[in-house]
Write a structure and sequence with these properties.
The complex is a heterotrimer of chains A (about 375), B (about 325) and C (about 325). Chain A is mainly alpha-helical and about 375 residues long. Chain A is about 65% helix and about 5% strand. In chain A, about 40% of the residues are buried. Helix content of chain B is about 35%, strand content about 25%. In chain B, the strands form 3 sheets. Chain B has a 6-stranded mixed beta sheet, sandwiched between helices. A 4-stranded antiparallel beta sheet of chain B has the order 2-1-4-5, covered by helices on one side. In chain B, a hairpin with a 2-residue loop joins strand 4 and strand 5. Chain B has 11 helices and 14 strands. The mean pLDDT of chain B is about 90. In chain B, helix 4 packs antiparallel against helix 5. Chain C folds into 2 domains: about 220 residues, Rossmann fold (3-Layer(aba) Sandwich); about 60 residues, Alpha-Beta Plaits (2-Layer Sandwich), CATH 3.30.70.100. Chain C is built from 11 helices and 16 strands. The chains are: A mainly alpha (about 375), B alpha/beta (about 325), C alpha/beta (about 325). Chains in contact: A-B, B-C. At the B-C interface, helix 4, helix 5, helix 6 and helix 11 of B face helix 5, helix 6, helix 7, helix 9 and strand 13 of C.
């Protein structure tokens, strides 16, 4: 291998990207737009879910329960109801996604037995929101229960026994504010790198075929490996630049906690870039038109990354066969790794499993890519 | 140019290439010496580009061998490619790179030392009259300038063999003359040049020619000897009504062929000494008057038609 | 139809694009049944002129009449009376011979009652009888090109424009093509051929040389060859050629020197060095030279002489 020729290729490619508005837009503008769109647009949080309250008792205790629902900002009261009929109407008209009904004997039952049921009714037309709201509601109730049961026990002279006492204390680790953005943004980083990386390199070889420059290029002593390395080099740097941009905006704009080390992030990102750039390159070698190559690159990066990587839909909740398929969906490893680095501060040894997955992928892609391009017209 | 003078710069033996059922190139043999300008001449579809691509090592032959400067192109493609330069028919440089950037890129690909590259690119740019356009994007050059830039990039590493696929297609006569002046200069420096052309008049400028027809070499020699190989002698008869003249003459004894031109006809006869007087008498009888019948220099096209035309009507 | 003679009249025709004058007060008259070659370097204004004559571009100044119609004012009528064909003419390769003809017949609005006869004529002319249902892309270049001509004349246009019609076509096929053009000319069709290949110009009755938008010379190929080159043309064998060329450029009496094949073409004017002196003159400078022979200039010699002017590139590669 001749390093001069590799650098000559890289230099030429850099000039071409710099002068090609389309490539430049993909390299620099697309990450910004994606970060904004995906960062703000896709949210698994519920905020101010319209809540109807039918408080049949209207006591201090019942108001305290309602207060627990509304205080964190997840629910806001859209209507206070006075009858069953009101409740049905409000649900029918879609005026609330959730209603809580507090029975007349709520505070009395609570005082005598230490627990009291309340009823929560959900409008399940929007299954996603319902699920999330249900989760929040259960959390809220569980918290309230724990507190009341402690108070009740104290008031009734039941003392916690030293052994076997289990206090249910729901807690959320790593994402204390239960903000799904913290969960989403690391995934967005993976989406951006996969899209940008594969898009840019998918154009690189097909451009030479399309513009008729390939015939002369392959008549020179430059080797296929030199062509590949030289061509991927600038895109690799662009990928790192985009990764840095994503990191900075995730931490300083979206306030996602970053608990891991930059070194870990760098090593794993390099591995992921090798995979996505290699995939784009492989597509480019096969498809001799820029449009076709870029369409296919979009298909093989966008779909698996957004649907099967666990970036929005948790892999654990997918049916078993789909879960098996996700094993060959390379972004899932990187998404897992990124979340762990960002939120748990995991280091390389902790991440051995997804790292191994990514590593195997990188090896396969490198193996394929070095064999893909032949300096022949036929 | 660099390197020791060698006897044979390009040797092609038994070269064949098929595309599906089409035999694009059939058992082609030729060799080119340093200082030769070897022309592959033939109409579109004769196999010119296919041969050039195989010589350049970008297309693999189905059979036969090609040696460039003694290096087998199939066995050692990168070694062979160091010794040659190839200019494809379609402009192969980067239109979004400037003149200087293209030259730099090709210089680097051939590992030309920096000082040599700078000196050589200056010399070549001046010779081509492109020094003022160094910073212009290649895509913004005129056709003739693009072609010269192609030649500069091909010559930046002083190749022993220069392969030019239809270099003058779409180039006007003035630029074509400039281009040929450059080729002759290279020739004197011992570069072996192989070029293809569909233009028979251009073929006469080559030192040696191969007439290609349906993938086969039909005749391979110097232009002068190829012209001698034409059966018969060519005569020209000027007339304001050449069509009428041809109607009289065509098919007469000793007339091997006629060609209608704008203001004259060309007549190929077996024996001029005998036929010129006969034709004059014939034309006088038909009321054309005394016609001026002169010998005409045959072109390569005349030979091509005389040798191949009869059995190959289109 | 009634037709005024001549077939094409061009009077002071001018086309300006912003500051650039592509065609500059062109005057030319072409008679019915003439084959006229329009030659010139790239950018000389050939295609701009042809586009104006086809009614596709509005002249800035001057006027032109094609088949009796004013190209500026009656572009539609002009387009109905011309045929256009280029070497890159787009026949549809995935349609058969007959389908192509039917398509162009419809395009040119050939009357239905006439269509069958015209198609038969075109098929016979192209020598494609019996191959009407063959896909065009499988035809050899010579046939394709004659079929393209057939398509261009389906509507019996009195004026025909050809753009480099036979470049790259087999020699025998191209000769047959030109025979066809001459046959059409005998039937009164006027043909304007635009090309920069001199061998195509040789088939024309008259050749108009155009450069920088202006008409530089016009005449039959023989007349043009006899055109003053500024002296007499000699051909000389000498070696090395490049050195001889460099030496000769500055010698008084040498109007022009150019490499032509493996020989030198030299134009000598009266009063300077003579042909007989050349071998001795070069020999004294270490260049071997045979005695020069007088040759008839080719159309290319004339073209280059008239067009080049100060244009110079010397082979220093």
């Amino acid at each position: 291998m001749n390093i001069r020729r590799v650098f000559a290729m890289a230099f030429k490619e850099t000039l071409q990207v710099w002068r090609d508005p389309r490539s430049l837009a993909i390299a620099l503008l697309m990450p910004v737009m994606q970060m904004v769109m995906l960062g703000y647009g896709v949210s698994l949080d519920i905020k101010h879910v319209p809540l109807c309250v039918y408080d049949q008792e209207n006591s201090q205790e019942s108001r305290a329960i309602v207060e627990r629902f509304t205080a964190p900002g997840w629910f806001s009261i859209s209507q206070t109801l006075v009858s069953e009929a009101d409740l049905r109407n409000a649900m029918d008209r879609g005026e609330c996604s959730m209603a809580i009904v507090i029975p007349v004997d709520f505070s009395r039952t609570l005082a005598t037995t230490g627990s009291a049921p309340i009823q929560a009714i959900f409008d399940a037309t929007d299954v996603n929101t319902t699920n999330i709201a249900l989760g929040y509601a259960q959390g809220t109730v569980a918290q309230a229960n724990a507190q009341t049961s402690a108070q009740w026990k104290a008031a009734h002279g039941v003392h916690p026994s030293p052994v076997g006492q289990v206090d249910v204390e729901p807690s959320t680790w790593f994402n204390e504010t239960l903000d799904s953005r913290n969960f989403i943004i690391p995934g967005v980083v993976a989406v951006i790198l996969a899209l940008v990386g594969a898009q840019l390199t998918s154009l690189t070889i097909s451009r030479e075929w399309e513009r008729g420059t390939m015939e002369q290029l392959i008549s020179t002593p430059v080797t296929a490996l030199e062509v590949m390395l030289g061509k991927l080099m600038p895109y690799f740097l662009i990928g790192l630049l985009d990764a840095a941009f994503c990191l900075v905006s995730a931490v300083y704009w979206f306030d996602v906690p970053f608990r891991g080390s930059l070194g870990t992030l760098f090593v794993t990102t390099v591995l992921f870039l090798i995979v996505v750039l290699g995939i784009g390159y492989l597509i480019s070698v096969r498809i001799r038109s820029q449009l076709g190559a870029s369409q296919i690159a979009l298909l093989v990066t966008m779909l698996p990354t957004t649907l099967l990587s666990g970036y929005t839909f948790p892999i654990e909740q997918m049916p078993a066969p789909i879960q098996a398929i996700t094993l060959i969906v390379y972004p899932r490893y990187y998404v897992t790794i990124l979340r762990a680095i960002f939120l748990k501060g995991s280091s390389l040894p902790d991440l051995w499993a997804p790292l191994l997955g990514l590593f195997i992928f990188a090896l396969i892609i490198i193996w394929l890519a070095t064999r893909a391009f032949h300096k022949r017209l036929d | 140019m660099s390197g020791n003078p060698i006897e044979v710069a390009v040797r092609v033996q038994g070269l064949s290439k098929n595309f599906g059922t089409v035999q694009a190139v059939r058992n082609v043999n030729f060799s080119v010496s340093p200082g030769d300008i070897f022309g592959l001449v033939g109409p579109d579809g004769a196999g010119k580009t296919t041969i050039m691509r195989m010589l350049a090592g970008v297309l693999s032959p189905d059979a036969g061998s090609i040696a460039v400067d003694g290096v087998d192109v199939s066995a050692n493609p990168e070694q062979a490619k160091l010794r040659l330069s190839y200019m494809p028919q379609r402009f192969g440089l980067y239109e979004d790179l400037t003149v200087a950037e293209n030259i730099f890129f090709y210089g680097e690909l051939f590992s030309v030392p920096r000082t040599e590259r700078i000196a050589r690119s200056k010399e070549l740019l001046e010779a081509a009259g492109l020094q003022a356009f160094r910073r212009r994007l290649a895509g913004q050059l005129s056709g003739g300038m693009k072609q010269k830039l192609g030649l500069i990039c091909a010559l930046i590493h002083t190749p022993q063999v220069l392969l030019l696929d239809e270099p003058t297609t779409g180039v006007d006569p003035v630029s074509r003359r400039d281009f040929w002046a450059i080729l002759y200069d290279l020739r004197e420096r011992g570069v072996a040049i192989v070029l293809s052309t569909a233009y028979m008049d251009e073929a006469e400028r080559c030192t040696r020619l191969a007439l290609l027809h349906t993938g086969e070499i039909r005749l391979c020699d110097t232009p002068a000897r190829i012209k001698e190989a034409m059966p018969g002698t060519l005569l020209a008869i000027s007339s304001a009504h050449p069509r009428f003249l041809r109607e009289i003459i065509a098919g007469k004894p000793g007339v091997l062929g006629t060609l209608l031109m704008g203001d004259r006809i060309h007549v190929r006869v077996d024996d001029p000494a005998r036929r010129i007087p006969e034709l004059q008498i014939l034309l006088a009888d038909q009321g054309v008057g005394i016609a001026d019948i002169v010998r005409a220099e045959p072109g390569i096209e005349d030979v091509f038609v005389a040798l191949l035309g009869q059995g190959n009507k289109s | 139809m009634t037709m005024v003679e001549p077939a094409i009249i061009i009077q002071g025709l001018t086309k300006r694009f912003q500051d650039f004058t592509a065609v500059d007060h062109l005057d030319l008259t072409i008679n019915q049944g003439e084959i006229v070659g329009f030659i010139g370097p790239n950018g000389a204004g050939k295609s701009t002129t042809i586009r104006m004559l086809c009614g596709l571009l509005q002249p800035t100044e001057g006027q032109a009449f094609v088949a009796g119609f004013n190209v500026g004012r009656q572009p539609e009528a002009v387009r109905e009376h011309i045929g256009y064909m280029s070497q890159k003419f787009s026949l549809y390769g995935d349609l058969t011979v007959r389908e192509n003809l039917r398509f162009f017949g419809g395009l040119y609005r050939v009357p239905r009652h006439d269509r069958g006869e015209r198609m038969a004529f075109a098929i016979a002319m192209a020598g494609l009888a019996g191959r009407e249902d063959v896909l065009v892309r499988t035809l050899a270049s010579g046939w394709k090109q004659r079929l393209a001509l057939g398509c261009a004349i389906l509507h019996r246009p009195p004026v025909l424009f050809l753009d480099e019609p036979t470049s790259g076509v087999e020699p025998e096929a191209r000769r047959q093509f030109w025979d066809l053009i001459h046959e059409l000319a005998a039937g009164g069709v006027t043909t304007l051929v635009s090309t920069h290949y001199m061998d195509e110009a040789e088939y024309c009755n008259r050749v108009a040389l155009i450069n920088r938008g202006k008409l530089v010379a016009i005449g039959s190929p023989s007349e043009l060859r006899g055109h003053q080159l500024g002296g007499e043309l000699f051909e000389m064998d000498c070696a090395p050629l490049g050195a001889a060329l460099k030496v000769l450029t500055d010698v008084p009496g040498v109007e022009e020197a150019a490499i032509f094949g493996d020989k030198l073409h030299i134009v000598l004017s009266a009063g300077g060095i003579t042909a007989g002196d050349l071998p001795g003159f070069l020999g004294a400078r270490g260049i071997h030279a045979d005695p020069p022979r007088r040759v008839t200039p080719s159309l290319e010699d004339v073209f280059v002489h008239l067009v080049s002017g100060s244009h110079e590139t010397r082979g220093a590669f």
